[in-house]
Write a structure and sequence with these properties.
The structure holds two protein chains of two kinds. Chain A is mostly helical. Chain A has one helix and no strands. In chain B, strands 1-4-3-2 form a four-stranded mixed beta sheet. The radius of gyration of chain B is 19 Å and the shape is globular. Classes of the chains: A mainly alpha, B mainly alpha.
Chain lengths: 20, 276
C-alpha cells in the first residue's frame, strides 16, 4: 500500500491536486 | 439491437469521458484542422520553444512554484520538454482516475485492485488518448495552445529523441480506425478494466466488468461503424500494441532516470516501479 500512496490518495479523494 | 443496460453503459461512459478529460478528439480535431480563431502556437525549434514557454507557461507546467520556473530556463531543452511531458502525464493520470471511478463496478472493487488496474492501465490509456492530439506532423500540447512538430521532437538528442516517435507511429495506425469520442470512451474503460493485470485479487469481479464493457464496445462499433465489420477485432489487436508500446516506454524512462539529471514525478515513479 505504501508503494502506491499517491494512487491510493487519488482514488479516495476526488480532484486532489498533484503538483509537479 | 442493443439491450437497454448496454445502451446506458455506452451513454454513461461517453458522458464520464467528456466530463473528466479536458481534451477530447472532437476538440483536438478543431485545433489540428485550423478551424479555430486561436490557432495553436507552433513549436519547431529552440526559439519557438522558448517563446512558447513564456506564452504558455501555465498550460505547459500548471502551478509549478515560480522559483522552480526561473531555474527551469537554465536547464537544457530536453530536460524541460521531459518535464512538460511529465506534467501532462500526471494531469492525464488524475483524469483517468476520475474516469475509472465512473465505470460501473470499479469503485466497488478492493482498493488495492483499483490501484493495480490504474498502475497497469493508465499509460496504455494515455497513449490511446494521445493519438487524438496527433497528426502526422506533430502533437497538440498545452490544452490546444501549442503544437510541437514531430521533426523537432525527433531532432532532440538521444535518448529523448526516441521518446515520441513510436507514439506517432502507433497514433497514425490507430487514427486510421477513425474512432470517435463515444468509441474511445469504451475503449479506455476496456483498457483500465482488464482482468489479467499482475497481482489482482478479485479477478472474476473485474472480468465481469470487463465483459460488460467489451460487449458494449462491440455493439457500439457495429452501430457507429456499420460498414467496418472488422473494427472490433482490429481494436482488440490495438490493446496488445499498446501494451508493447508501454513496455518500451517504461524501459526508456528507466534509462533516462538512470543516466540523466531528470527527476521523475513521485506519482509516475509509483506507476513505473516494479511495473514489468
Amino acid at each position: 500500500k505504501e508503494k502506491h500512496k499517491i494512487l491510493h490518495r487519488l482514488l479516495q479523494n476526488s480532484s486532489s491536486p498533484v503538483d509537479l | 439491437s442493443q439491450k437497454p443496460d448496454t445502451k446506458s453503459l455506452v451513454r454513461q461512459m461517453h458522458e464520464a469521458y467528456l466530463k473528466h478529460f479536458h481534451m477530447n478528439k472532437a476538440k483536438a480535431r478543431v485545433f489540428l484542422t485550423g478551424k479555430t480563431s486561436t490557432p495553436p502556437f507552433v513549436i519547431h525549434d529552440m526559439d519557438t520553444l522558448q517563446h512558447a514557454e513564456r506564452k504558455l507557461h501555465t498550460q505547459l507546467l500548471g502551478n509549478v512554484a515560480s522559483g522552480d520556473a526561473s531555474s527551469l530556463q537554465e536547464r537544457e531543452v530536453e530536460a524541460r520538454l521531459f518535464l512538460f511531458c511529465q506534467y501532462a502525464s500526471v494531469e492525464t493520470v488524475t483524469e483517468l482516475t476520475e474516469f475509472a471511478k465512473a465505470v460501473p463496478g470499479f469503485a466497488a472493487l478492493d482498493l488495492n485492485d483499483q490501484v493495480t488496474l490504474l498502475k497497469y492501465g493508465v499509460y496504455e490509456a494515455l497513449f490511446a488518448l494521445l493519438a487524438s492530439c496527433m497528426n502526422k506532423d506533430g502533437l497538440l500540447v498545452a490544452r490546444g495552445g501549442g503544437f510541437i512538430t514531430r521533426e523537432f521532437l525527433k531532432s532532440l538528442r538521444k535518448p529523448f529523441s526516441d521518446m515520441m516517435e513510436p507514439k506517432f507511429q502507433f497514433a497514425m495506425r490507430f487514427n486510421a480506425l477513425e474512432l470517435d469520442d463515444s468509441d474511445l470512451a469504451l475503449f479506455v474503460a476496456a483498457i483500465i478494466c482488464c482482468g489479467d493485470r499482475p497481482g489482482l485479487s478479485d479477478v472474476s469481479h473485474i472480468e465481469r466488468i470487463q465483459e460488460s464493457i467489451i460487449h458494449a464496445l462491440r455493439l457500439q462499433l457495429l452501430s457507429n461503424h456499420p460498414d467496418n465489420a472488422l473494427l472490433f477485432p482490429k481494436l482488440l489487436q490495438k490493446l496488445a500494441d499498446l501494451r508493447q508500446l508501454v513496455t518500451e516506454h517504461a524501459e526508456l524512462v528507466q534509462e533516462i532516470n538512470k543516466t540523466e539529471d531528470a527527476s521523475l514525478h513521485p506519482l509516475l515513479q509509483e506507476i513505473y516501479r516494479d511495473m514489468y
